[in-house]
Amino acid sequence: MSDSGEMSEFGYIMELLARGKVTIKNIERELICPACKELFTHPLILPCQHNICHKCVKELLLTLDDSFNDVGSDNSNQSSPRLWVTSPSLDKIDRINRPGWKRNSLPPKTTTFPCPGCEHDVDLGERGINGLFRNFTLETIVERYRQAARAATAIMCDLCKPPPQESTKSCMDCSASYCNECFKIYHPWGTIKAQHEYVGPTTNFRPKILMCPEHETERVNMYCELCRRPVCHLCKLGGGNHSNHRVTTMSSAYKTLKEKLSKDINYLIGKESQVKSQISELNLLMKETECNGERAKEDAITHFEKLFEILEERKSSVLKAIDASKKLRLDKFQTQMEEYQGLLENNGLVGYAQEVLKETDQSCFVQTAKQLHLRIQKATESLKSFRPAAQTSFEDYVINTSKQTELLGELSFFSSGIDVPEINEEQSKVYNNALINWHHPEKDTADSYVLEYRKINRDQEMLSWNEIEVCGTSKVISELESNCNYAFRVRAYKGSICSPCSRELILHTPPAPVFNFLFDEKCGYNNEHLLLNLKRDRVESRAGFNLLLAAERIQVGYYTSLDYIIGDVGITKGKHFWAFRVEPYSYLVKAGVASSDKLQEWLRSPRDAVSPRYEQDSGHDSGSEDACFDSSQRFTLVTIGMKKFFIPKSPTFNEAENRVLPMPTSIGVFLDYDKGKVGFYDMDHMKCLYERQVDCSSTMYPAFALMGSGGIQLEEPITAKYLEYEEDM
């Protein structure tokens, strides 16, 4: 397509807009910011290609920063705030109790937030808002809309003396509006200003050249097809963020996109009659949907009324059976009570019997005493063996509705071929957030899913379900309460048809907010024996040549030492929870908490000079804290190794067979600083394996130690995955 032909076609489309074929009022919904629900003000283009006001994205980031700081400092619990403190260093161990951020650094600013348009998480990168393009085209259209909406309101001259005159043109170079007289004065003929670009009166001034937000002195001259955004030549160079991306020239991208947009717009405008026909069809479909919906409601009411009738019939039958049994038992009790009432009246019988005993004639006595003796004997037996004539319990009449309740809970519409999704219990877990994964036997048949979750109270009371619509087969649920059971279930949707709900998955949240830290690569870290990854969330013990050389000392009574490594953040108050995984091949790993002064003793001890498993001040084996039951202990470490979890010796766990458990896949540590208590949990079932008191009079740190081959991996916090943008050009 030639440039003249392209411009003529585009001009034709704009002419249709001008003629009113497509009025500017009809595009109002395209000019509304999804965040503030008002007309765009200085719109920015997000990585997901949606637009948002500059002020709105700043407010969103500030709101997320405030919530992040609240969580970080308060841990969602004002009674147990979390204080970040520096780790102890060997050369300045006396400063160990000073609070403050590590290396005096500030917390990272939040640059990730959910897009109000598509609700996917978008990452603004290191430059944040400064890395976003301003959508000048949308800004111009918004300005046209504003002018159309306020046609009676004139734009006044910016340079007139009061009272100002109505402006007739605006200079894009001066960013000001002028009346005819002022324009002549400030743009005299024959000067450079006379060459300025001027347009009709406007309040929207845009730069002539679009500059790169990452390289502010460079103009954009290329288009990245992968990121779908303009870039400059520095972005494409070896060190740029788009060096490995496919780019095209700006003129080529302009021509391609303009051709596509013009063609699509022309197609839509040319199909006006078809659109009107489809609108009429949609009106008929809406009426049909209304009728079918009412019919479906009536049908559902009929089915439920039948169920109610069955329940009422069963209720009447059950109540009649209970009443009949109750009447029979009461009759028996009444008869027995009358018999015993007769015993009270037997005082006359006893008196009569005493008078009979006075009879001296044997024949007369035998004749009278025989029947009397039977009556006396019967009364005596009743007194000797009292037994109620019936039972008071109605245990046999308790209605078991568990199966029916479960069936009624699963009551739903016919699936019409949509299979029930199944939650993957192995891939679903809970840590700082809950990650729920599920799979669908016929994945392509479902348009979307609805994930439901609710809290289960301690008395097993069920709260109402919370619903979240999900397009994929996984979802991260945040803001769950600590130390609570939650039920999760999911159902699939295809159009207006939904499948029955999946089986519920019950997960227990950690007993306290998750404590985030990394391994400290300075304080006590022995790089000869330990290998720390770049992220500082994994450490391995290298049982190599150095360990074999150290083994020579065993001949003279020395021991191989434990290699300690601690967290880079300390705890001075509140409740905290963290988790880690121990590699199955690990020989010996110790994990738990230790106070700053205890770490000071351990890390100051000359390595390989004395046994670190013996301490002069404690009088017991400090490497195996199970030798003492002192509740004022300044540290607590449990031993893990050879695929076993060893519970320290205590009055509760004294026998060896009761202290050795299979090693959990993931191990959690719960520290209640204020109460001086530490617990160790099996993360798979959130079950406490061991708990004891610990002295928290000083700063406490997550502490670990390794001997021989081994590895420790800190549990990674669960976060929402960022939106992946697919190439569409």
Automatic annotation (TrEMBL):
Q: Please give a single GO biological process term from the UniProt record.
A: spindle organization
Show where the B box-type domain sits: 207-250
Q: Which organism is it from?
A: Myotis myotis (Greater mouse-eared bat)
Check the record and name the Pfam families matching this protein.
COS, zf-B_box, zf-RING_UBOX
Where can this protein be found? Cytoplasm, Cytoskeleton
Q: What is the lineage of its organism?
A: Eukaryota, Metazoa, Chordata, Craniata, Vertebrata
Enumerate the spans annotated as COS domain.
Answer: 357-414
UniProt entry tagged with the keyword Ligase: no
Chain ranges of the Fibronectin type-III domain: 420-512
Gene3D superfamilies in alphabetical order: 1.20.5.170, 2.60.120.920, 4.10.830.40, Classic Zinc Finger (3.30.160.60), Immunoglobulins (2.60.40.10), Zinc/RING finger domain, C3HC4 (zinc finger) (3.30.40.10)
| Similarity field | Belongs to the TRIM/RBCC family.
Q: Which GO terms describe its cellular component?
A: acrosomal vesicle; cytoskeleton
Give the SUPFAM superfamilies listed for this entry.
Answer: B-box zinc-binding domain, Concanavalin A-like lectins/glucanases, Fibronectin type III, RING/U-box
Looking at the record, the residues that make up the B30.2/SPRY domain are 497-721
Signal peptide annotation? none
Write the protein's name.
Tripartite motif containing 36
Enumerate the UniProt keywords alphabetically. Coiled coil, Cytoplasm, Cytoskeleton, Metal-binding, Repeat, Ubl conjugation pathway, Zinc, Zinc-finger
Q: Does the keyword Translocase apply?
A: no
Tell me a Gene Ontology molecular-function term this record carries.
Answer: ubiquitin-protein transferase activity
